[in-house]
């Protein structure tokens, strides 16, 4: 469905533009069947039968291009209105590419999320979700190859040559033209040819007045060294101010389906600071099959749960919503407890704790608040 939305939205504005689709899905996957129906004189489909990775897939598509410029876009985007003519106007003779420019560390992780970033400083990174590039300029740098950060080798070489700020152009407010769901196509992952549920789902309630914090939250999750996860962005109201406290808590019960074995809430004003979390978490749950996994979070200026409350039943105001993950069946059974007027996260995990026996305490600091914690304030006031 995501691939269909991406294709249809592009064709709505550009019915005659040549499109090259690199299909890395399993031959029995519905996506593979769908893209094969798109083959025409305007649409070329290269079906591989297996996932070669984001970067290699991008490079394969670029190698097929016969025009001066190529528009690269992910399969989970939706074009709301076309920015292409404006992007072309921004292209100068020496420009490599136009799109969303972000700062990352030399490791490809969003700059500032790792302590060692301060030693090396940031690099400019042309985001792969939607970018217009000059083919000849692309050929002068190492190709797109990585999976988690597909453009990293290219951007690193560009940085070392001192060219980044000269040949990369940021397109302002691209999100008003193109909607990007962020790893939506990873909702059901493929492992050794067999589809299975992801290990963990990160669920993020989206507030309309803090897009910059949401961006940091998304990038922090994308920095995971394992892709065995789903990231679900959720907002079901239409207000400009966002949820009140009660509705924000109650909204969790509306999220379905969740195609993962475990569920963790990570609001848009929080972020993940442990890039190996999913990898380590998977090893723990595969071995023990716990109903709840507790871990630590950096909330404001303190670590929660504090040593006094570690490995003990949850205590009100001493644990945050991003300090635990629960098995999907436990989530479904008790998620209505999140609908309390105040401290919904405590009421939820307290109910889960009392109803379960298999619990694991994972001694890692996994998450961090981006600003001072709300401590019970509604979503409409904490923006």
Automatic annotation (TrEMBL):
Concerning InterPro entries, the annotation shows:
Glyco_trans_2-like, Nucleotide-diphossugar_trans
Q: Mind telling me which Pfam families this protein's record contains? A: Glycos_transf_2
Kindly give the Gene3D superfamilies that the UniProt entry links to this protein.
Spore Coat Polysaccharide Biosynthesis Protein SpsA, Chain A
Q: Which residues form the Glycosyltransferase 2-like domain?
A: 7-150
SUPFAM superfamilies linked: Nucleotide-diphospho-sugar transferases (SSF53448)
Q: What's the protein called, per UniProt? A: Glycosyltransferase 2-like domain-containing protein
């Amino acid at each position: 469905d995501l691939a269909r939305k991406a294709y249809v939205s592009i064709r709505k504005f550009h019915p005659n533009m040549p499109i090259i689709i690199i299909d890395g899905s399993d031959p029995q996957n519905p996506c593979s069947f769908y893209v094969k129906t798109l083959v025409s004189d305007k649409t070329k489909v290269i079906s591989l039968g297996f996932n070669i990775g984001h970067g290699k897939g991008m490079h394969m598509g670029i190698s097929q291009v016969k025009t001066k410029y190529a528009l690269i876009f992910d399969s989970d985007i939706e074009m709301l209105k076309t920015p292409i003519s404006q992007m072309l106007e921004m292209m100068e003779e020496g420009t490599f590419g136009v799109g969303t420019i972000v700062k990352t560390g030399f490791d490809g992780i969003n700059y500032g999320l790792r302590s060692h970033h301060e030693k090396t400083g940031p690099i400019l990174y042309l985001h792969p979700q939607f970018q217009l590039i000059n083919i000849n300029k692309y050929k002068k740098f190492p190709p797109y190859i990585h999976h988690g950060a597909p453009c990293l080798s290219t951007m690193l070489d560009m940085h070392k040559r001192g060219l980044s700020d000269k040949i990369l152009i940021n397109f302002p407010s691209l999100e008003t033209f193109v909607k990007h769901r962020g790893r939506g196509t990873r909702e059901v992952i493929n492992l050794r040819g067999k589809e299975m549920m992801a290990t963990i789902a990160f669920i993020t309630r989206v507030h309309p007045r803090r897009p910059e914090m949401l961006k940091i939250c998304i990038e922090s999750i994308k920095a995971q060294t394992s892709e065995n996860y789903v990231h679900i962005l959720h907002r079901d109201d239409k207000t400009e101010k966002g949820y009140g406290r009660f509705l924000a808590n109650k909204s969790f019960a509306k999220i379905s389906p969740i195609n993962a074995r475990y569920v963790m809430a990570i609001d848009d004003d929080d972020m993940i600071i442990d890039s190996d979390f999913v990898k380590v978490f998977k090893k723990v749950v595969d071995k023990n099959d716990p109903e709840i996994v507790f871990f630590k979070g950096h909330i404001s200026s303190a670590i929660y749960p504090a040593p006094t409350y570690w490995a003990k039943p949850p205590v009100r105001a001493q644990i945050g919503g991003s300090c635990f993950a629960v098995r999907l069946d436990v989530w479904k059974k008790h998620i209505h407890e999140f609908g309390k007027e105040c401290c919904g996260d405590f009421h939820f995990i307290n109910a889960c704790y009392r109803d379960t026996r298999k619990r694991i305490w994972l001694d890692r600091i996994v998450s961090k608040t981006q600003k001072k914690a709300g401590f019970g304030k509604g979503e409409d006031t904490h923006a």
